[in-house]
């Protein structure tokens, strides 16, 4: 590799808000077979909003939201942020015995009652039946919503459907990568139904759903073991090991410090299209070297 071409390439990247921390990344980006995108905060805006509250029989919306918000006070997850935003102005009862289950949800004691907020896995693991809300839960997930199931005293009292809009350039990013001959995957801790719907909307080739935070790096390794050079794009703390494991890690500039530290390339404008530009730039740079 001629150092001059790489230097020019790195400089061109920087001028476009693509910070290449490791010059070797420019050469590795040429060989990428698959690029995996984290879902929340990377392909989506990462600003989820409560879109719908579905109370169970005998409950009303306000009770479901207040109960959920009471317990989500203990969490920093983006779902907690959305629920607390919706509960603004409501008096929230204090909570004790708070516990968070990574990739699943939260539990606490509120007014002497055990309350859960989380995905279906969390409900199943605690023997909580979804009762008459089971079908609604599946339907909302099939429509691309993330569903928080709110349970109290061992039964689900309501569902909270949360929507997080895709970034405006997400679809174009995916189409252009595919046009370059690169396969596109999406990875998420979210439910399979939700992920498949969003994957279909965006034209994703491979949907990796219900992946626990600690297992993201293993998924990268799996694709590498199948003979692929793998790029990973992420923003979150739990994307860091996967960014490190990948052949080229891309961090969203607006993401967490840990993600930025773990990536070889930083997308300063937080635009996924800059992944395409980085790969095009690396191809152009390599052509100049031969
Ligand atoms: P992601 O960042 O892709 O949403 P996570 O691993 O953080 O993945 O979470 C996976 C799933 O666990 C979420 O989609 C949600 O259903 C559930 N979950 C996690 N934390 C919470 C929480 N504080 N409240 C409700 N549900 C939660
Ligand atoms: Mg994320």
Return the average pLDDT rounded to an integer: 94
Head-to-tail CA distance between termini: 8 Å
Order of helices and strands: HEHEHEHHEEEHHEEHEHEHEHEHEH
Ligand kinds: adenosine-5'-diphosphate, magnesium ion
Q: Look at the helices and sheets and give the structural class.
A: alpha/beta
Description of the molecule:
It is found in: Cell membrane. Keywords: ATP-binding, Cell membrane, Membrane, Metal-binding, Nucleotide-binding, Plasmid, Translocase, Transmembrane, Transmembrane helix. This is Copper-translocating P-type ATPase. One of its GO terms (molecular function) is ATP binding. The protein is an alpha/beta fold and 290 residues long. It is 41% helix and 24% strand. The protein is built from 13 helices and 13 strands. It has helices at residues 3-15, 24-28, 39-43, 61-72, 78-86, 120-125, 134-142, 170-179, 192-202, 216-225, 240-245, 257-262, 273-289, and strands at residues 18-20, 34-38, 49-55, 95-101, 105-110, 113-118, 146-152, 155-163, 183-187, 206-208, 230-234, 248-252, 265-267. Helix 4 (61-72) crosses helix 5, helix 7 (134-142) runs parallel beside helix 9 (192-202) and helix 8 packs parallel to helix 13 (273-289). It is elongated, with a radius of gyration of 21 Å. The N and C termini lie close together (8 Å). The relative contact order is 0.20. The structure holds adenosine-5'-diphosphate and magnesium ion. Magnesium ion is lined by residues 38, 40-42, 234-236. The site of magnesium ion (MG) has 7 residues, from helix 3.
């Amino acid at each position: 590799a001629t150092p001059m071409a790489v230097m020019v390439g790195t400089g061109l990247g920087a001028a476009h808000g693509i910070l290449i921390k490791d010059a070797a990344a420019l050469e590795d980006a040429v060989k990428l077979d698959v690029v995996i995108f984290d879902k929340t905060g990377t392909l989506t805006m990462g600003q989820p909003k409560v879109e719908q509250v579905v109370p169970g029989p005998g409950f009303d919306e306000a009770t479901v939201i207040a109960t959920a918000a009471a317990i989500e006070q203990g969490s920093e997850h983006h779902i907690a942020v959305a629920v607390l935003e919706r509960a603004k102005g409501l008096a929230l009862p204090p909570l004790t015995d708070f516990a968070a289950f990574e990739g699943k949800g939260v539990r606490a004691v509120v007014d002497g009652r055990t309350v859960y907020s989380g995905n279906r896995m969390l409900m199943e693991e605690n023997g909580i039946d979804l009762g008459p809300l089971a079908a609604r839960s599946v339907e909302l997930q099939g429509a691309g919503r993330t569903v928080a199931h709110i349970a109290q005293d061992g039964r689900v009292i309501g569902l909270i459907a949360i929507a997080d809009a895709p970034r405006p350039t997400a679809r174009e990013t995916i189409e252009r990568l595919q046009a370059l001959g690169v396969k596109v995957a999406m990875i998420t801790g979210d439910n399979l139904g939700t992920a498949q719907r969003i994957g279909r909307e965006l034209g994703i080739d491979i949907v990796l759903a219900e992946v626990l935070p600690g297992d993201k790096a293993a998924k990268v390794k799996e694709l590498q073991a199948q003979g692929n050079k793998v790029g990973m794009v992420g923003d979150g703390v739990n994307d860091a090991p996967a960014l490190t494991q990948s052949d080229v890690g891309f961090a969203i500039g607006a993401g967490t410090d840990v993600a930025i530290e773990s990536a070889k390339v930083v997308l300063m404008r937080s635009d996924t299209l800059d992944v395409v530009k980085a790969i095009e730039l690396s191809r152009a740079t390599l052509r100049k070297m031969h």
